[in-house]
Amino acid sequence: xxxxxxxxxxxxxxxxxxxxxxxxxxxxxxxxxxxxxxxxxxxxxxxxxxxxxxxxxxxxxxxxxxxxxxxxxxxxxxxxxxxxxxxxxxxxxxxxxxxxxxxxxxxxxxxxxxxxxxxxxxxxxxxxxxxxxxxxxxxxxxxxxxxxxxxxxxxxxxxxxxxxxxxxxxxxxxxxxxxxxxxxxxxxxxxxxxxxxxxxxxxxxxxxxxxxxxxxxxxxxxxxxxxxxxxxxxxxxxxxxxxxxxxxxxxxxxxxxxxxxxxxxxxxxxxxxxxxxxxxxxxxxxxxxxxxxxxxxxxxxxxxxxxxxxxxxxxxxxxxxxxxxxxxxxxxxxxxxxxxxxxxxxxxxxxxxxxxxxxxxxxxxxxxxxxxxxxxxxxxxxxxxxxxxxxxxxxxxxxxxxxxxxxxxxxxxxxxxxxxxxxxxxxxxxxxxxxxxxxxxxxxxxxxxxxxxxxxxxxxxxxxxxxxxxxxxxxxxxxxxxxxxxxxxxxxxxxxxxxxxxxxxxxxxxxxxxxxxxxxxxxxxxxxxxxxxxxxxx
Length: 538
Hints:
By secondary structure, the chain is mainly α. It has helices at residues 2-25, 36-57, 70-92, 111-131, 134-153, 157-172, 175-182, 187-208, 210-229, 239-254, 273-301, 305-324, 331-342, 355-394, 398-410, 417-429, 433-444, 450-462, 466-479, 485-496, 500-512, 520-537; strands at 61-62, 349-350. It starts with a helix and ends with a helix.
């Protein structure tokens, strides 16, 4: 029986490694979001299947042992090193990136997910290098260097900082490493030098992409205004992507000469998980997060030396990313967190002696998990159908696809804001402006940005509601003041309605406006405005 239990435990750890591999690499062009959505559904479905099978087979409940074990750790490490190689191949031009904006994305949509997974997996490589024999130590050490190189070349400043900080924490709390370092002749000098490096290192990382860093400062400043309006309980789950752009529009309306004007863009996340929690759940939610974090640290400090340094290192890497990015948007990050947290669980086997409780618990899992699995497959089917009709619509079959959009809207995707936006856009193309306004207004309750406002303005204009059109274009312009198109539309409306003074005002604003990214469209808009000014002066 012990041998069978051990085999099941090893099989479970092998399956978890396989699920993690899917959460990192699985992509599919059958979905609108080809990278993140397939990973999420695969991971969730796989976990439900494994949970159901485990409930059917297990006679007792056993928590994951006090440490995940070499099988799982090596599996995760291999996945991370392979992902790092994927990114390096993209950097070399041997594989294509998933984004035209970034050279390295791995199997993710941008470098944020790529660097987050590799940085959280980095401490696992360090641990294996310290706990294995000579050959395995060489392999894991080499893998860790490959991961560090890939993160560095991805140009992720947060990833670089996470690896540096997690390595420092690992060394700081690992007694054997400290004792070895203390034997060095210049140990104190090296320690002081390492600490002294942090400040100039942070300065260099800031100036590497200064505009990006300042853009995040802008987002945090505006998020603070959002938090101030509901500091105790917050604005509610999902409120950030629904309300933030309204606050950004208000900010630039009140600060028309802001130095941040060229840095503004559509924002869905504050690049800080704590700020997001504060905005959506207020100080109550933030206090719960901090209390939980303190409890986790307290439990971690009770661990044996090797496990303590391992867990603290991994959680440090995660903490760095929570402060400057959005790691919780990626399902593979959740799995890595589960690996670190599993070390905190007791290793004792939990035997439920009451037969009724045991049978009820197993029956609940066996019934509920397959039900959720069925619902997930229906959702997957709907999202794949959405991709099919969206592609058909792009090929010019918009009107023919509207009935399919309506079916999805009435069933599975009514609460998906990105589907609602796509549906509203297709209704606009089909000339159904009232229905488009209705759907986009519904979308606005959970998701709002510059593009949605521009689409609403176009609907109002084609409905002949000129005042609403003007109001909406002005609102869109305040959301992202560096954009030229809202000003150009306002200029056209005032010109076509004979309001020459207003048209002249916007023409001058267009001519005097700083250009963030030169393009043929911007050149055309400025040419039109300049020609209008020239003719008026003649």
